[in-house]
Amino acid sequence: MTDQAPESVTDQAPGSPMPTAHTPTATNADTVQAFLFALAEEDFDTVESLAAAELIWQNVGLPSIRGRHRIMKLLRRGEGRFGFGVKFHNVAEDGGTVLTERTDAIIIGPLRLQFWVWGRFEVHEGKVTLWRDYFDFFDIMVKAPLRALAGSVFPALRPTF
After folding, report:
1. For this structure, is 11 an active site residue?
2. Which of 8, 13, 57, 96 is at a distance of 20 to 30 A from 84, taking alpha carbons?
3. What is residue 62's DSSP assignment?
4. 95 - beta bridge partners?
């Protein structure tokens, strides 16, 4: 495991402002993007500020985690141990529902597990109340680890955004 943080774990161009959910004109899509970008930066205070007390986190096919307190406790336990990256491909918003098509990366030391995710978020009064992700288990459990291992041996094959 390395003590160095990944160079860049978001798909933001260097120097470009990150979306913010703290302005009166922020959209629900901005809130979701700010939520995930803050998670990528390990800015857990911002993640917590954008999460509703009754937040539900569902990775479809796995047990749901309910409540901001429990979710934040879990996320903070990974601080410094795991990295997270996100690249948005498409974001759509209809009222309080935000749909995302993205690539996520889980970074464990030199291994970068990168995989496609489709997410549905519910946002009410500027707070995320539902975070539901859909993904392919075969991609996460087999293909992503194989790509990560190949990339750790042959840096030219390392997954990137």
Report:
1. no
2. 96
3. S
4. none
Q: How many residues does the chain have?
A: 161
Could you tell me the CATH number of the domain that includes residue 143?
A: 3.10.450.50
- The residue range of the domain holding 39 is 28-154
Q: Is 133 a catalytic residue?
A: yes
Q: Pseudo-torsion of CA 79, 67, 135, 122, nearest 10°?
A: -120
Query: pLDDT tens, 15-66?
Result: 445 555 555 567 999 999 999 999 999 999 999 999 999 999 999 999 999 9
Q: Which two tokens stand for residue 110?
A: 């030199």
- Measured distance CA(23)–CA(115) in Å, rounded: 31
Task: Please count the other Cβ atoms lying within 10 Å of the Cβ belonging to residue 45.
Answer: 10
Catalytic residue selected from 3, 11, 104, 136: 104
Task: Point out the catalytic residue in the list 3, 11, 133, 136.
Answer: 133
- Residue 93 domain-assigned (yes or no): yes
Total domain count, the chain: 1
